[in-house]
TrEMBL record:
GO terms for molecular function: xanthine phosphoribosyltransferase activity. The keyword Calcium does not apply. The gene is xpt. This is Xanthine phosphoribosyltransferase. Pathway: Purine metabolism; XMP biosynthesis via salvage pathway; XMP from xanthine: step 1/1. It comes from Limosilactobacillus ingluviei. The keyword Cytoplasm applies. Homodimer. It comes from the Bacteria. Xanthine binds at L20, N27, K156. Keywords: Cytoplasm, Glycosyltransferase, Purine salvage, Transferase.
Length: 192
């Protein structure tokens, strides 16, 4: 997506540890217009997949997920992060390990918002190690629902997320693919 890549070039900064900071439009301040066009792009890519729900994980996945749900005309669920093991009655849960923050979180989705015939599109802001999406896949498996694919705003192709998801049979669509953040420079890969 050209507009997204242009914005990354203009306002993205590279932090130590191969982290791209895009607080200007995605992770803190949100450019709602850009998010809407991102949602429309995901909706177009999954238009024929029969999606009934969009799933993401709080917090940074919510903005692009909501815009995707709006474009597809389906509800959006954000899995909640819980540090506690308790109070999980009536909820599906999975463990997500964050390599960047070095903490493990439980993510949960209430069973009452999941229907057995759901066809889920997973949306997230970044794909790095694939832990967040894998957690949602574990929940989908528990719930017995189908996952049609994963839509990612920014994929870091030098990290193992995509191969982890494709091994589980999940098609991945990324709107910007970054192959390197070495030397503080953003280098894009070819798009899907
Ligand atoms: P994974 O979800 O692909 O496994 O990523 P990983 O465990 O490596 O990353 C943990 C958190 O860091 C995730 O956010 C992920 O979206 C984010 N992240 C990974 N790489 C980058 C990056 O280059 N730039 C930025 N800005 N974020 C990155 P989270 O813990 O779920 O937090 P939240 O922001 O959604 O609340
Ligand atoms: Na994030
Ligand atoms: Na995220």
């Amino acid at each position: 997506m050209e507009e997204l890549k242009t914005r990354i070039k203009e306002v993205g900064t590279v932090l130590p540890g191969n982290v791209l900071k895009v607080d200007a439009f995605l992770n803190h301040q949100i450019d709602a217009g850009l998010m809407q066009r991102i949602g429309q792009a995901f909706a177009a890519r999954f238009a024929d997949a029969g999606i009934t729900k969009v799933w993401t994980v709080e917090s940074s996945g919510i903005a692009p997920a909501v815009m995707t749900g709006l474009a597809l005309g389906v509800p959006v669920i954000f899995a909640r992060k819980h540090k506690s093991l308790t109070l999980n009655e009536g909820r599906y849960t999975a463990e997500v390990y964050s390599y960047t923050k070095q903490v493990a979180n439980k993510i949960t989705i209430a069973q009452k918002y999941v229907a057995p015939d759901d066809k889920v599109l997973i949306i997230d802001d970044f794909l790095a190690n694939g832990q967040a999406v894998s957690g949602l896949l574990a929940i989908a498996k528990q719930a017995g629902v189908t996952v049609a694919g994963a839509g990612i705003v920014i994929e870091k192709t030098f990290q193992p997320g995509r191969s982890a998801l494709e091994k589980q049979g999940i098609p991945v669509v990324s709107l910007a693919k970054i192959k390197s953040l070495a030397n503080g420079q953003v280098e894009f890969a070819e798009e899907d």
